[in-house]
Amino acid sequence: MKEIKLLYLYPDMLELYGDYGNIQVLKYRCEKRNINLIVDKYSIGMDAPDFREYDIVFAGGGADNEQSILAEDLIKYKDNIKKAVESGTFFLLICGAYQLFGKYYKGVEGDIIPGLDIFDYFTEAQPDRRKRCIGNIITEVNVNGETTKVIGFENHGGQTFNITSPFGKVLLGNGNKFEDSEEGFFIKNVIATYLHGPLLSKNPKIADYIIKYCLERKYNEEIVLEELDDTLEEKCREQLLKEFLNK
């Protein structure tokens, strides 16, 4: 039996909009294919993890206060995280975690939370807390040469700049900042996005992209994933796309 090891970062603090559902989706789709998904958790005070030992590292969304606390802890592992990214470990980063991997996050009061500086983007919050990018969002994403529409929900005050490799083209919603044409950050082993929902429950092709990537990297062989019956998921997607894009 093949296996994938996943590290879940700060489950007690980065779980703002049910982002744990992404792990549940990965686990479900792995089990259906007789793949064992092992989930380890790390939070403040636990033994230091070696990020390079994992196939996937996942972190969800959190508010400004949580980000400030976690940034101080996470910075201790900057070099290890950078080496894991460079060696090909897959990182799935949602909202607040997305921001923490950039250069910095500037809060509402102008305070600077240093990021890990793994990537060149940075995020600045709007001075008016009431101004947020919030609502349903649809982006057009290319994975493995195939274009798919990705559905999610965004709720963020932070505006992210200097994205060199976006996750997708915005068809509905805001994206990285108000009325942006691009959303998220994407390289072959990193998806960083503002999309909650959770992301993978509405977008099985993205889940399978992650699974396939991790298996091929780990076992150094071409992997053809067994097709799953996504009839229900696709019917739900069709309905959502019809409702959102025809408004």
Quickly list its features:
247 residues, single chain, globular, alpha/beta, 4-stranded mixed beta sheet, 6-stranded mixed beta sheet
Question: What is the overall shape?
Answer: globular
Percent of residues in β-strands: 25-35%
Order of helices and strands: EHEEHHEHEEEEEEEEEEHHH
- Approximately how much helix is present in the residues? 25-40%
pLDDT < 50 runs, ≥5 residues: none
Structural class per helix/strand content?
Answer: alpha/beta
Contiguous helical run count = 7
Q: Kindly, what is the distance between the CA atoms of the first and last residues, rounded to a whole number of angstroms?
A: 46 Å
Largest sheet: 6 strands, mixed
Mean pLDDT comes to 94
Rg from alpha-carbon coordinates:
17 Å
User: How many strands in all?
Assistant: 14
The largest sheet has its strands arranged as 2-1-3-4-14-13
